[in-house]
């Protein structure tokens, strides 16, 4: 049975976010307090477009869109979390 790459990447990113939160990284703490965990839907678009060469800016925009879909409306929080989130997803693929 083929493995779901999106779930695999989301688990890697989730573990990295939790480790960052344990070390006091404010963006990780904020994400976990609002969302609880990194899930498949958060990383899917970035993983899909990585094979087409999504840029860091594009990855951040994709993460921002997922956060806004989840009701994140504080621009400062969205900016801070998306900035690190896009890079975490890309480096976890």
Describe the structure.
The protein contains 5 helices and no strands. The chain is mainly alpha-helical. Helix 1 (5-22) packs across helix 3 (40-50). The mean pLDDT is 93.
- Outline the low-pLDDT stretches: none
Structural class by SSE content:
mainly alpha
The number of strands is: 0
Mean of all residue-level pLDDT scores: 93
- The proportion of strand residues reads under 5%
N/C terminus separation: 20 Å
Spell out the key features of this protein:
93 residues, mainly alpha, 5 helices, 76% helix, globular
Task: List the SSEs and their pairings.
Layout: H1 5-22, H2 26-35, H3 40-50, H4 56-69, H5 75-92
Concise synopsis of the structure shown:
Helix content is 76%, strand content 0%. The chain has 93 residues and is mainly α.
